[in-house]
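From the shared-data thread, chain only:
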Amino acid sequence: MKLVVGLGNPGKEYEKTRHNIGFNVLNLYLKKHSINLDKDKFNGKYAKTNINGEEVIFLEPQTYMNASGDCVRKVVDFYKIKHEDILIIQDDLDMEIGKIKLKEKSSSGGHNGIKDIELKLGTNDIKRLKIGISNNKMMDTKDYVLGKFNKDDQEKLEKSYEICLNIIDDFLTMNFDLLMGKYNKR
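Structure, as tokens:
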């Protein structure tokens, strides 16, 4: 069983903010595959489905970013999901807008949602799909990540989103080292 988690904050006021890029990518993927987040349990919204013979759970924690680990841990425990079968979709301040990178066994890079997931799962051995949102050193980090993308940034991101959807498809069937080799060279 695989678990694909999009990170973000629940609520209308956070829609389309930089910190919600994980929710955005997950929702695009679900829309493309006509999957609905039809379950509301474990402090999250999720869908459980079968894709090409693989059971998959798609999850949006509703605990707010800094407590994402609570929800992820409950789903992992209930469904007995191995850590190596988890993919977290997150924003990354240290990468230019729209840049994509797959990582595993790395530090949180200061991302509070990742920090909480690592803390609650007791490991940093987590596969991640990181999407660059750039950084504005002239703004407070909290204000920046909770701000919305401008039109130019949105256009750059749209080009990256299609690649992200392909990465999720490939994650369900491909060895992660091969997956990183395929997509991290871009």
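The beta strands are 2-6, 39-41, 44-51, 54-61, 86-92, 100-103, 127-132.
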